[in-house]
Amino acid sequence: MGNAQSPCSDPRFASASRAFTQKGLEDLKALFASLAAQSQSNGHHISSSVFKAYFGIHGPLGDRMFDLVSQRRHDQKLTFEDLVIAKGTYEKGTKDEIEEFIYQLLDVTDNGIVGRSDVKAVLMEILDDILCQRNSVPGSNSHQDIVGIFLNAANFSKSNEGCAESSMSFEDFRRWCALFPSVRKYLGSLLSPSDTGRPGSHIPHLLHSENVESNSLLLKNEYAWHIGGALSQQELDEWKLLYHSAFNGLSFNTFLGNIANDEGPTVLIIKDREGYIYGGYASQPWERHADFYGDMKSFLFQLYPRASIFKPTGANNNLQWCAVNFSSESIPNGIGFGGRAHHFGLFLSANFDQGQTFSCTTFGSPCLSKTTQIHPQVIECWGVVPKGAQQEKHEAVKGTVLERFKEDRHMLNMVGLASSSE
């Protein structure tokens, strides 16, 4: 099988090989043999076009990935040793090794500088990929707008000699990944086959009634992808619209009534009069409490004019707030996240006409809007339907009906009416 069985003098190959089980290496050999055969190289190497087609990586990002995996030889030939070294580093290396690989991946122009144009090209390629099944036009103007929003949360603080434009340092990159976990998920899973549903490429199906037009919703597919970066794969199946102020009115009671039958997590999104869009992921149902409750799965996020996610820091347990019909001034009526009473990370009053957002240690988040006092213009709430939950609910209902049928049959038999009822 050519290079797959030849002696190797590269110590990196020996080191990377130890990261795999014997079966893992055999599987890699079989993959290499298959792709090399498609490359018509007599089993010696994998071509760039076959590599990119198999892993589903195209454009500048695909070129850069092939360049890195083939050890930057620029000979358009990927050997078995290259594949083992790359996968050993990229998938089984230390956290620092993996993130250094991904950071280099962003340098699509291969000039040693991760500039804004590099990151923009990568984001455009990602959006083209994940949205291709949603009939979006590759490179569309909407992509341009969204990419700008995603880039607004990134820093480019590194000065480069002879270059007027600052670039993204490795520390800038790591901070951006913390605020934007979807991009880290996606770029960290590119050497998985594209048809396996790799992490970072999923957008939940957004379900809503037919009378709700998609262009009237705050939650776009791109935003759902961004928020989903902080969630598990099981939570990225379906999200259903439970409440929308344009259709249900700015009513706290209607909001609570609409979500009362939904026991799962929810995504709350607000657009205020300043045009800022932000919200929070509530891991627990919205239920009446006199104090903070919830767990460390909750988080805050921004969607516009920048896109960021703020997960719990562990500084305190002041995660969710839902107070209804309390007369004490120390217990503000409404819903919120983080901070403390009267100084929340995000809060909506029970009248749904005003609220607040302060920087808070609970999530390490800044003020999410232009000012700390907010006036909601649009409020949406989506219910997260974990994968398999609908089927389990159907089976539970079916089981209940069958049990009731059996009980009814039993009662009829006891009184001797079962036969006559047929």
TrEMBL record:
InterPro entries assigned to the protein according to its UniProt record, in alphabetical order: EF-hand-dom_pair, TLDc_dom
Signal peptide: none
UniProt xrefs under SMART domains: TLDc
Pfam families xrefs: TLD
Segments forming domain TLDc: 217-385
Protein name: TLD domain-containing protein
Biological source species: Actinidia chinensis var. chinensis
